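Trying the structure run again after the queue cleared.
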Amino acid sequence: MTPVKGVAAAVVETPRRSWEAARRLPGVAGRIRDDDIAEVREKARIDDVVSGYVTLKRAGGGSLKGLCPFHDEKTPSFNVNPARQFFHCFGCGEGGDVLSFLMKVDGLTFTEAVERLAEKFGVQLRREDGDDEPVRPRGPARGRLIEAHKVAQEFYAEQLAGRDAVVARQFLHERGFDQAAAATFGVGFAPRDGEALLRHLRGRRISDEESVAAGLVALGRSHYDRFRGRLVWPIREANGDTIGFGARRIFDDDRIEAKYLNTSETAIYKKSQVLYGIDLARTAMKESQQAVVVEGYTDVMACHLAGVKTAVASCGTAFGTDHARVLRRFLGDHDTTSGEVIFTFDGDSAGQKAAMKVLDSDQVFASQTYVAVAPEGMDPCDLRLKEGDEAVRELVASRQPLYRFALDNVLNRYDLDRADGRVDALRDAAGLVASIRDRTKVETFSRELAHMVGVDLDQVRAEVRRAADRPAPGPKDERRPARGAEAAHAPEPARPALPSLSDPRFLIERELLKLVIQHPGGVGRTTTHVTTGDFTHPTFQGVWAAVTEAGGPVAGVDDQGWAAKVRGSATDPAVAAAITELAVEPVRGTTDPNPTFAVAYVYRLQELTTSRRIADVKARLQRTNPVEQALDYNRMFGELVVLEQHRRKLREGAVGQPGGQA
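Done. Tokens:
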């Protein structure tokens, strides 16, 4: 079991102690009241919250499944159980409730997560008085940075209607965007006055420290607006929160900085993980299983207004592997036969170079990847302006496979009318074919390459094999440390790893614990005689200890907070993580567990315990001399007979129950 890592670990590792510490408000005396936190947990459905970040599909047994947002994966192992209000990833081990999910995915503190969900689901938070004021963490809290961006976005949008924004409005009009379009995308204008936003933020009680930390204000000889005299686009997270801005120069006399200026890296803005338009595109992406990646903010606007509602763009950086992972989460991309990612590029050399770079990140997609290049090298914004909305939709519809675009790009560098040109082209293109992730397609691509170059298929196959056999380039510096230094930094011997909780040896233990955690009312008193010694995996022993500490399941009572209560009784992070895992995985063999069904697992568990005792007695019996130690020998023999009879009854009892063949 992989330990729970990151921010959520603070809640998992020491549930009782961290509860008291985490719920303290930064900078405010008093704590959030327990009953208010409980109301937040009750009203904030975990599937509603998680679906804002992950495309979830039904997985049976009342669970939902999707691609994990905490690690890169191509097969979904991230499970959400709405009934139990828990999530768990069977790939990386992350798990917890709705609050720990939000803390991990957005880097929030416990208090920030509670406050965000309380605001969203209409819960009024009250605070207890009399506690010492806690130490405030370094830097402004995430919630304050989000608030600063919200204030700034509203301010910029208001300024777009002002007298000084004539040039900004003209820029939008010339590109086919009216006032309604600007409002839809939140476009605004940053006044040329270098302190207009700064004064406004101060008036809204946003401190200079918070403004600088948010990237809205810069500090030179004095504080000044980061974006001034520019058209600005708000960059939002999938949930609609503004976390940054993209700004374009519109005045001819503005030569201070680059044509485009984006928010610098901040605590909430990471350009390698941000996609402009994802807040508007995510629903359409999920429904259509398609994503269209364009190059600029106005291209995103043009596509959406033309009816291509799945368009997004990277922000101030080239589309990379992290962007691909974000897309995959919203596409639910784990089926190699469905889903499309379409890149639009200019037809010039820069656009071709960008497409070739995307080919590397294509390897992280399972979906089909395409390229759409507009005639005369126009981008979607220019195409819509010149030929209308239908032309933009047709551009996307006329996409071509990325590999075909890449092959054309490679072969166009060579004169295929010359023999040496064909040889060089083949060698270059063979490396491209050999790098294709889906090995079943290599033969098809080889045939196509043979046709495009005009050479024999066997020649292409041989060149592709040679390209595949070439060793990958090694690291630039492979110098080994001196032997003395190597010994000085020798790692300590690793502790033996525990076996996987999914090991078939522990199936009965796992299934019984799932029943106890997910359906306590259906299990009832059938587990009265179960003890920690009936479990062989140390983690499962810890889970049963937590169940016992929580009071054990009560017949006929299916407490919605039971799983959280059990998890709160755990002090070992591995045990707490295991509880979330057991809380979301469907129970085998039934959708309506009851005491009769649970009895079969109790019998099987205790049969295994008895079998282990029999093995121990047989081992001792084998080491005992029946003549010299006749008394001990006869005692153990009698014990063995009794244990065998007990095991037989347990086996018969298990087989006689529904689910007894588990």
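The radius of gyration is 31 Å. Worth checking whether this holds up in the mutant runs.
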